[in-house]
Here is the input.
Amino acid sequence: QITLKESGPTLVKPTQTLTLTCTFSGFSLSTSGVGVGWIRQPPGKALEWLALIYWNDDKRYSPSLKSRLTITKDTSKNQVVLTMTNMDPVDTATYYCAHSPPSGIAAAGPFDYWGQGTLVTVSS
Amino acid sequence: QSALTQPASVSGSPGQSITISCTGTSSDVGGYNYVSWYQQHPGKAPKLMIYDVSNRPSGVSNRFSGSKSGNTASLTISGLQAEDEADYYCSSYTSSSTPVFGGGTKLTVL
Here is the structure.
C-alpha cells in the first residue's frame, strides 16, 4: 500500500525559503523508473506541477519556477524534500507530493498516488 | 510552457454522458500519448482516472474513458452519477521533458 505525507511550515514570511518534506511508504525510490513529484494548488485555482525526482536522481523542474526550486531525495529515509526560495504571497497554496510509476519516458508518467496535501500560507 | 486549455465548466443530468476537452499543442498533447486525467473532490487530493490517453487504473469505473485527436484530448463520463460531480484536470508530457496541467473543469451533475 503506497502512502505519502507532506510536512513543513504552515506559515512563512515573504522572502523566506520554504522547505517541505514528503515522507512515503509502500515503495522505494531506488526502484528503477519510480519518481516522486510536487504539485501545488492555490486556493480555488488549478493544479500546477513544480518538480520531479527519479530513482536515478534525474531531476525535472517547472521552467517558470526553476530558479527557485530544489528537489532532493533521501532513499534511506524514504523522503523527498522540496525547497522554494524567495517566497511570495502568490505562492500561498496547498502543496502535494505524489508517486509516479515507471513510464516510457521520464516525466511522462502519471501521478497515481497523492499525499493529503499541506496548506502553506505566505504572509508577513 | 502554458497550461492546457479546458472548459471552465460542464454539466449533465444523471445517466447522461459528458465530455471534457483538453487542448494543447503539437509540443504536448499532440506530440505524445502521455495524457492523464484527474478527479478532485472539494478538499481532497486529486485521483488518477486515466493515464496514457486511454488507460484506466485498477479500480476506476469503466464509465470513464479517454481519447485523443490531434492536439485535443478528451475525457468522457458515461452514465453520469451524482458522485461524479468534481473538478477534473488533464495533464500532458511536453517537449520540455516536463509535465503540464490543464486549467481544470468543474463538472456539475444537475
Observations:
- Residues 36 and 99 of chain A are 5 Å apart (CA to CA).
- Chain A touches chain B at residues 37, 39, 46-49, 52, 60-64, 96, 103-112, 114-117 (CB under 8 Å).
- The two ends of chain A are 40 Å apart (CA to CA).
